[in-house]
Amino acid sequence: MAMVEDIDLRGMQHCETTALGVLLRHEGLDLSEPMLFGLGSGLSFIYWDSKSMGFPFLGGRVKPFELTRNLAAALGLELLVGETTSPRRAWQNVAAVIDAGRPVGLQLDSYHLDYFSTKVHFGGHVVAMYGYDRQDAYLVDTEPQGGAVSTSLAGLARARAERGPMTAKHRSFTITAPSDPTPPRDRIIPAIKACADAFLNPPIANLGHRGIEKTAGQVPKWLQRSGNPREDLPRTAVLMERAGTGGALFRNLYRDFLAECAQLIDNSHLRTGHTLYAEAATLWTQVAALIATAGESGDATHLAQAGSALHELSRVERDAMQALSRI
């Protein structure tokens, strides 16, 4: 058995920030989950649909692992990433780190993890690993998934080897903090401005505030778009509210990040952004509830109401990001 000592096993709401929190606390840097998410410029939006998909997907954050790269760059952390097509080499990459007394982050497909009760393929899932024995790996996942958990080594190997959307090639990573790390407070404004710029100037209409506006026009048609609306629509609502988003499609996390920043920085544009993201978070939760009700009842009126709320959300988030771009 190999086990890293002095590990803080707190699970958070979102998988990538949970893993980052474990790795950074072991390096002596303890930040709140909203601060990790915000300094990583994690907020985004995507409306994703194609003929090969059974139903559209709504995403509220940047693509997997981009948050980790952003956070490492912002705080001047050393991020070492290992990827390989060899399962044997992949295990060696992980075991060597743990044997040396350090936790390691893994990107994998949650479908194969023993403790996941809902078996859905998601190749962008991230966990922290802090130990192993002959049969099991010891991980930290989100608080809703159990926090400190274990899974079989065979299941872990399958999860890491899976290929498909958002997967990586047995990706593992470590983070090392410098002796004089960049104070998080000094990186707040650049992180906010980078996030705002990407949101306000998306390269395609499916992203950012333009993506929310596009979604507003598509959601009212979802009863016809779905082959099984009683399953597809409530599942979408669950993904928005409870599938590691922290609620409101990550808007609760960004609202709380801005509130924490406003305690550190006196800026009117920052306060405006926080007020507007508090409004946006409430609206997103309402949209999720309307989508779920429409699926359960078959009544398209609820989708029309969701579409109206999404039109408003596009405006609210655009105004919020415009204010934040001026801080």
TrEMBL record:
Residues 14-142 form the Butirosin biosynthesis protein H N-terminal domain. Residues 155-324 form the DUF4872 domain. InterPro entries: BtrH_N, DUF4872. Pfam families: BtrH_N, DUF4872. This is DUF4872 domain-containing protein.
